[in-house]
Design goal:
- With 152 residues, the chain is of the alpha+beta class.
- Strands 1, 2, 3, 4, 5, 6, 7 and 8 form an eight-stranded antiparallel beta sheet that branches.
- It has a single domain (21-148), classed as Immunoglobulins (Immunoglobulin-like, Sandwich).
- Mean pLDDT is 84; it is low at 1-10.
- It is built from two helices and eight strands; from the N terminus they run H-E-E-E-E-E-E-H-E-E.
- The termini are far apart.
- Helix content is 16%, strand content 59%.
Length: 152
């Protein structure tokens, strides 16, 4: 009974705590690592500013990826990322893209473009003090098409 009441109290405290949304900036160092059949491994660096007194983890998620309106596939996070409290740090984000039908052809075409509008839609799973939450993601950024070139 003590455990249950402690859990309820902790849940109430967590819901009443204010959690400011972290800022994700400075996307850089985009690297396409390897193409394995219909999977493409890649990574990029991102600077995360976390103004909160507690850190958090980004555990997994599924994001639909498109470029200039063309479907490329579904992205999954390869490793969990631990974001430190009250900090501004750069993190390397390893991802796998499971290519959709025609995704590889679309990717090759986009790699020859000067500029590509990349869209991510889906959810990621965040965790704070053991409590998880699905966070919707609807991001759009313009990148240089040459960043999408496949490894030789």
């Amino acid at each position: 009974m003590f455990f249950l009441s402690s859990l309820v109290l902790l849940g109430i405290m967590m819901n009443s705590c204010e959690f400011d949304e972290p800022d994700f900036t400075d996307f850089s160092n985009f690297k396409v690592k390897e193409l394995n059949g219909r999977s493409l491994d890649f990574s990029f660096d991102v600077t995360v500013e976390n103004p909160n007194a507690i850190g958090f983890k980004i555990k997994n998620g599924k994001l639909n990826l498109s470029g200039n309106g063309k479907d490329l596939g579904v992205i999954t996070l390869d490793e969990k990322i631990k974001v430190k409290r009250k900090s501004e740090n750069k993190y390397t984000v390893p991802l796998t893209l499971d290519l959709s039908n025609g995704g590889l052809i679309n990717l090759i075409q986009l790699a020859t473009s000067k500029e590509v509008e990349v869209k991510l839609d889906g959810t990621i799973r965040g965790k704070v003090l053991g409590f998880g939450k699905d966070i919707p993601v609807h991001e759009s950024r313009k990148i240089d098409g040459s960043m999408l070139k496949l490894p030789e």
